[in-house]
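Figure 6 in text form: structure in, sequence out.
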């Protein structure tokens, strides 16, 4: 078997490790990229203090599913102040924004020039440090960013060799105060990353090992984290998210993420919930094609069969108060064809082990409609 594995990010994991941030910051000017909620909750102030610098510029305007306009605005500020280090503090939207901003500071043009393929990033001189505050996206250890073009309403992923962060500080303490809804959505996102990486056509032994451990940690800890939010379960989810990110950084995701794009873009479903909606049904469909491989995972997790595993996933969705039917988010039968077409337009749909075309996806959607 031939395989490649490349992960150039130095990972710093553990409670209190945010205190090491100051030793990683370089240059004369630092920029923190975050969002308004984390600014209000005091996370940005905490990170500024740990950075140990007085010349820090704040950009705390990142929205969920970051727009191209937001990315360009932040890059303009970074260029004007000749920023040397960018510290991303937040979830996937924040880290994705920071990746593009760091690259735009070393390249001309706007993010849409690169998103549509007319330009390619050729360098990145700015140091990038990612500090996740959720346990789900794994963006701190991937070279993928996802951006929304408001003019077309399209949410599109982008891959660049310069999107790898230099350092990822994964401090579970930063997730201890997450509300239940965010814990559930980001946890299900991590589960989708791990399970899709495990079953993807592009999977390989190293990514499978990371994925299977991530799935186990999520199945054991997500329920507790949603109900009690105890320290141990939070630490477990932080590790799971990190491992899942490492896994899918090598393989990409598959049909579940392809389905999630229109569910988030058009119907406003939180990303993790959007990824999970069809997960039990797609799991059972993929089992018909790679049953032997999935049986290894199922036995490792301690389930009797694929049906019991699917029920366990549904149980996590119930505990997290995630929608389980398309009708719950306002989708009607007449909307299904458009949803099918939009989902299958994503190239990652082709990485799914079972061949899911229009007919198969329509049947899945009909099953989970109401």
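Output sequence:
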């Amino acid at each position: 078997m031939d395989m490649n594995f490349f992960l150039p990010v130095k990972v710093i994991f553990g409670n209190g490790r945010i205190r090491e941030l100051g030793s990683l910051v370089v240059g004369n000017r630092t920029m923190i990229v975050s969002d308004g909620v984390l600014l209000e909750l005091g996370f940005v102030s905490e990170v500024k203090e740990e950075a140990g610098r007085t010349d820090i510029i704040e950009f705390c305007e990142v929205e969920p599913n970051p727009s191209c306009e937001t990315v360009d605005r932040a890059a303009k500020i970074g260029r004007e102040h000749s920023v040397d280090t960018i510290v991303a503090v937040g979830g996937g939207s924040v880290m994705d924004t920071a990746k593009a901003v760091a690259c735009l500071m070393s390249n001309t043009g706007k993010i849409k020039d690169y998103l549509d393929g007319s330009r390619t990033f050729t360098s990145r001189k700015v140091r990038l440090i990612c500090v996740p505050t959720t346990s789900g996206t794994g963006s701190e250890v991937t070279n993928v960013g996802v951006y929304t073009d408001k003019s077309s309403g399209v949410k599109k992923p982008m891959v660049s060799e310069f999107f790898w962060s230099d350092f990822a500080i994964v401090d579970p303490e930063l997730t201890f105060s997450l509300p239940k809804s965010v814990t559930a959505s980001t946890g299900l996102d991590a589960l989708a990353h791990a399970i899709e990486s495990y079953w993807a056509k592009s999977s390989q032994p190293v990514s499978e090992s990371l994925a299977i451990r991530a799935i186990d940690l999520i199945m054991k800890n997500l329920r507790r984290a949603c109900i009690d939010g105890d320290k141990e379960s939070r630490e477990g989810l932080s590790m799971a998210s990190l491992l899942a990110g490492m896994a899918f950084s090598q393989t990409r995701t598959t049909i579940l993420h392809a389905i999630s794009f229109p569910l988030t873009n058009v119907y406003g479903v939180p990303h993790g919930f959007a990824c999970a909606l069809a997960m039990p049904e797609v799991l059972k469909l993929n089992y018909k094609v790679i049953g032997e491989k999935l049986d290894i995972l199922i036995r490792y997790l301690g389930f009797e069969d694929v049906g019991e595993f699917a029920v366990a996933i549904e149980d996590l969705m119930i505990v997290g108060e995630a929608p389980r039917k398309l009708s719950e988010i306002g989708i009607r039968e007449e909307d299904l064809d458009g949803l099918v077409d939009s989902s299958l337009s994503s190239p990652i749909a082709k990485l799914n082990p079972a061949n899911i075309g229009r007919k198969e996806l329509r049947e899945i959607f009909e099953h989970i409609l109401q």
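Caption detail: The beta strands are 10-13, 30-33, 56-59, 85-90, 127-132, 144-149, 154-159, 167-170.
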